[in-house]
Amino acid sequence: MPRPGAERSFRIQNVRSVPLPADLTTAARIRNAALALFAEHGPEATSVRAVAAAAGTSAPSVIRIFGSKEKLVEAVDDHVVGRIGEMLDAFVASADRDDARSLMQAVVNEPDLLGYLIRALTGGGVAGDVLFDRLYDISMSFLEQMEAAGVARPVADKAATVVWLMAADMGVLLLRRHLVRALGIDPFTPAGMDRIAAVELDLMTQTYLTFPGAPPDDPMEAEI
Predict the structure, then answer these.
(1) Taking Cα atoms as reference points, which of 88, 72, 83, 93 lies closest to residue 29?
(2) Which has more pLDDT, 181 or 152?
(3) How would residue 217 be classed by pLDDT, with cut points 50, 70 and 90?
(4) What share of the chain is helix, strand, coil (3-state, %, to 5)?
(5) How far is CA 52 from the centre of its chain?
(6) How far is CA 135 from CA 92, 165, 174, in A?
(7) Over 70: is that where the pLDDT of 6 sits?
(8) Domain residues of the chain, as ranges?
């Protein structure tokens, strides 16, 4: 997929501090502070000074370590994509359908990561484009690993399959508030995850559409 090369431009303003663990390196503390603030306010509305204050350091130190605000945003993107990759790798390695819930729970347990994902993917900027492309690559690798492990059957159009799966998963994230209204339960609570996962697994592992009266060799039925 094409990766835009246009530079990001960000508006500077102060935002609130964020508590961080005391045992992280300075670079990790800065990155995590930036992730939390970017998730809540967006990179455009977050100043280097605000990130520095939240991380317990100075703005010059942030620039010295990361080089620029743009490089800091890239480091946050790297971290987010890396964490998602680790979660998917763990799911593939388990080859256990019951871990679908644990995969969702892993994302929910990192609210800053979840918030950043939603903001970046719906923001319409270069950061969201780059992040989507990288998630697409990870998802494609994930699908290929699933096929190789025998957990998923081979599909003819991998690109369309990956995009459809991404849309389904991201839809739960982006439409969370509306799903709560429609279902009467948060899809990211244990009970909500079980309910969504049960339907998802049923649709993905069982024949959903039927064609009454179709002959056994009907090509449409053979595709289901």
Answers:
(1) 72
(2) 181
(3) low
(4) 70, 0, 30
(5) 26
(6) 16, 12, 16
(7) no
(8) 14-67, 76-205
- Return the CATH fold of 76-205: Tetracycline Repressor; domain 2 (1.10.357)
Task: Name residue 89's amino acid.
Answer: D
CA-based radius of gyration for the chain: 21
Superfamily of domain 14-67: Homeodomain-like (1.10.10.60)
Instruction: Output the CA–CA distances (angstroms, integers) from residue 180 to 177, 196, 200, in the order listed.
Output: 5, 12, 17
* Rounded average pLDDT over 28-49: 93
Question: 144: which 2 tokens?
Answer: 């290929």
Task: Using alpha carbons, list the distances in angstroms from residue 167 to 17, 23, 78, 100, 154.
Answer: 33, 37, 21, 16, 20
Burial 25-51 (b: 16+ CB within 10 A, else e): eebebbbbbbbbbbbbbbbbbbbbebb
Residue 115 structure tokens: 């918030």
pTM: 0.64
Cβ-contact 34, 115 below 8 angstroms: no
Least confident of 88-102, 143-157, 192-206: 88-102
For the chain, percent of residues with pLDDT exceeding 70: 77
pLDDT digits (tens, 9 = 90+) for 183-199: 999 988 888 888 988 88
